[in-house]
Amino acid sequence: MIVSLVVVLPFAGAVLGLLLSRYPHGRGPAENLAANKRAAWFGVLPTALSTALIGWLAWENTPSTNVLTVIDTGGIAITVGLEAAELSVLTAMLVGVVALAVQVYSVGYMRGESRYPSFSAFISLFTSAMLLVVFAADLLVLYVGWEIMGLCSYLLVGHWWEERANSRAAIKAFLVTRLGDVGFLFGIFVLGFAAGSFRISDVMAADIPEPTLVLATLLLLAGVAGKSAQVPLHTWLPDAMAGPTPISALIHAATMVAAGIFVVARLYVLFPQPTLDVLGVAAAIGMLGAALAAFAQTDLKRVLAYSTISQLAYMAAALAGGARDAAVFHLVTHGAFKALLFLCAGAVIHHVGSNLLGHMGGLRRPMPVTFWTMTVGYAALIGLPPASGFFSKDAILYGLERSSSPIQLLLYGSALLTVGVTGAYATRAWLMTFFGTGKVQALPEPAPGTAHVFDGREAPASMLWPIGVLAIPALLLGFTDTGEFHLAPAVTALVVALLGAAFVYVIWRGAPERDPARLLGVFHGPCEQAFYVDRLYAAVFVRPVLALARGVVRADDHVVDGAVRGTGRATVGLSGLTRHLQNGNAQLYVTGLLAGVLLIAVGAVVLG
Amino acid sequence: MHVVYPAVVAALLFSIGVYGVLARRNTILVLMSVELMLNAVNLNLVAFDVWLRDVLHSGQVLTLFVIVIAAAEVGIGLAIVLAVFRTRKAIELDRLRELGEP
Amino acid sequence: MSAVDFWPPSTLEIVFLLLGLVAVGSALLVVTTRQLVHAALWLVLCFGALAGCYLVLTAEFVAWVQVLIYVGAVVVLLLFGIMLTRAPIGRSDDLDSGNRVVAAVVALATAGVLVSVVVGGFQHAYADLRPGSGSAEELGGSIFRNWVLPFEALSVLLLAALIGAIVLSRTDISGRR
């Protein structure tokens, strides 16, 4: 009952926000302001209530299952129901808190934006869909939420669609995740038909032969790679940074991308070793590559985007190495600190009026609150004690060290290297944003499609409060883990991370004006372009498809339409021939008439 | 008398009439050909009347009627030909094409 | 139907076939001759031969009517038509249209179809000829007993045709304005 309320409340908020925000209709500035105010209430209140209910669920801590109805399909029935297990409640808590923070934050961030009502409604819808995924008791119900999330992601990334690049990014995000979703859906089908039921508990209890399981989970993995931005379907995430920053924080850092990891964790018992190995290889490549790419980015949000890919690969590696609890733990802490980082980045961008690191610098003094909270976020990202990331990374490294996976060495080595690179890129971004000399000049007019320039010293309170609140779990979440603490891997990771950070610091001290990314040398280009994966895809997939599409258009123009036009022309030509018969010579007509009569008579005699 | 003989003669006459109607340019010749066709029909009517021994003599009576109608037709036809000749100065069928597709 | 053989043909049949040959031959000349007036004259011969055929078939009255009306009236009318349209007297090479080949094909096909159907349908039919069955007395009785109404209608039709011919051929009668 409570679980259903948790899911339905944000949905109701979305519906009300879409329908009633603009009632009574009007398009003036005053009406816009009123509509935004109403939409803010519709956005914040249900999410807050929902979060509170999740908190209560977590307090009660009794697994419960609610089945609304069983849809008899003639084949395998679909159970419309929700299930609140421990993992679900934990993830839902993360979703609720981050969504609430983002809703409050965007009230300030999107102030005066005429499309704010639909924006907040879509966030509510997204929250509802994510909670549906988290609580779903049936694979198909889970898939419904999964798809709604993809839709919301598309709508929100393309929020500033006036600029062509933004709508292109939205379409790219939609198409790439959709590519994975096809595999996901078929994976669900394979599982459901193998187990004879779509209920998750039945599927997990079913005795499914290993080859079927490998097939099904590999298909599921396609969807996971799409949603969680894993290699090779990760390319949409950096481009999705075209959306408003709160969306980046909500969808592309804390929740939607976490859905893939969550699903693997939820169905973990189903994943056989071969699938996990595939996941592990993709994760090992992804985490190091994305970290290196993050190091070379010039756009603050893209730094964070690649960092997200890298951290998600971390979790995937933990899952592949058998450390499921560590992966879930990192999922939660990462959700908290990455949302914090994004919201802080939003505040910085709001202040500077630009996404580029080169335009920032020396922001420590004008934005103290943002500075300190973002420092907490970076500390957690690097894994400095006592921030939450320290503990979760330690758990993952410990798990990978002890892993019995056949690719354990690859996973562990890659993870350790990534820790170092993470320290380096986080330090670089931190230094370039907050230290050095200030280069901020308030732009007279914000470029279209970017956030509005705020000419005050700090972001408005509605933006600062969520940041401050999120900083607390980012800092302290690590102490809630009940698992034991392992000193050796922690010290190793800390040393490696500090090494990376110190390296960057030394380079930066040498020339504060210049980008420390230059230490990559000849690898700077490939890293900044994320190893040309986008170009590779463009060459291998996009251009052939476009050429094919052009060919289809041409075929349609010349062959299909040509056939139609040709028919017309042929008819006109033939009728030109027949009109020669209509020459007014009555004898000719009679000849034709008699010949016809004869033919009919002969036909009647012969055939009749 | 075998019925086939008059029937075949009538068929041949009719075909000749058809040829005349289709091949001759002069309208009066076309009218003559029409008369040939009518006569073919008459021959048939008489022959079958004789063969069937019709008590009403419908075949021969009809032949008479056809002859009368043919006479009327020739009268009307010639009047039309004369009217056309007066207005167009020509009675060649293939020159009277005002109703043709331009 | 009948057991009478085609061979040897009876005298009547030979006479009929000769007359028929004359009729068909003169008809062919009617549609092929290059002189207009000759065509009319060949038509006379054709109609005469046909009248002979009627006689052989014991239809005396029809034969006399044929001679009277066709040979006596229709052909004369046609000759008048030829004269009134100032048709060339003598040979003229443009009496046939360019349609001739097609016309010949259609005519031959017509002949083929008709002859084959007629032969196939009536090859065993045999008519016993009884002289007198087509005499004026018999026919007159039949017409005025059984066919009076069509006869009267026909007289009205003839009258209408007469008036129509007059109206069409006179130049001093104009249509209603």
UniProtKB/TrEMBL annotation, chain B:
One of its GO terms (cellular component) is NADH dehydrogenase complex. Keywords: Cell membrane, Membrane, NAD, Oxidoreductase, Quinone, Translocase, Transmembrane, Transmembrane helix, Transport. It is found in: Cell membrane; Membrane. It is an enzyme of class 7 (translocase). The chain crosses the membrane at residues 6-22, 29-52, 64-85. InterPro entries: NADH_UbQ_OxRdtase_chain4L/K, NUOK/Mnh_C1-like. It is a multi-pass membrane protein. It catalyses: a quinone + NADH + 5 H(+)(in) = a quinol + NAD(+) + 4 H(+)(out). GO terms for biological process: ATP synthesis coupled electron transport. One of its GO terms (molecular function) is quinone binding. Its main location: membrane. Its EC number is 7.1.1.-. It holds the Pfam family Oxidored_q2. NDH-1 is composed of 14 different subunits. Subunits NuoA, H, J, K, L, M, N constitute the membrane sector of the complex. Belongs to the complex I subunit 4L family. NDH-1 shuttles electrons from NADH, via FMN and iron-sulfur (Fe-S) centers, to quinones in the respiratory chain. The immediate electron acceptor for the enzyme in this species is believed to be a menaquinone. Couples the redox reaction to proton translocation (for every two electrons transferred, four hydrogen ions are translocated across the cytoplasmic membrane), and thus conserves the redox energy in a proton gradient. This is NADH-quinone oxidoreductase subunit K. It comes from Herbidospora galbida. The gene is nuoK.
Automatic annotation (TrEMBL), chain C:
It comes from the Bacteria. Its EC number is 7.1.1.-. It is a multi-pass membrane protein. The chain crosses the membrane at residues 12-32, 39-57, 63-89, 101-127, 147-168. GO terms for cellular component: plasma membrane. Belongs to the complex I subunit 6 family. This is NADH-quinone oxidoreductase subunit J.
